[in-house]
Amino acid sequence: AWTLRADVIGGEAGATSIRIGDAGLRVTVGVEIPPGPVQVVVRPDWVEPGEGVAGQVTGAWFRGPHTDYRIETPGGTVEMRRAGSPQWAAGDSIDVRILRGWPVKSS
Prior knowledge:
This protein is mainly beta. The chain has strands at residues 2-12, 15-20, 23-28, 36-42, 47-62, 66-73, 76-83, 93-98, 102-105. It has no helices and nine strands. It starts with a strand and ends with a strand.
């Protein structure tokens, strides 16, 4: 798992809105998190290509049944795991959507 820098911008009924760079993310959590900076824990299988956070691929590793990508975003580095052979290479621009995240208060 990787952590991204983010800001809590609001929340209601167990869901928290978080901003990573220019992208907003709504995360369901079991605790109330006040507005302000947070770190968001993101697993590789919680990331997919699509509209969301802009990034650049810094590495791609073919692992047989899947490929792992390391992506630099405005909030920090994240990894994405996709089935099959590599679709992007180091240096490629990519937008990723973060499906899930677990915010933890920044210290």
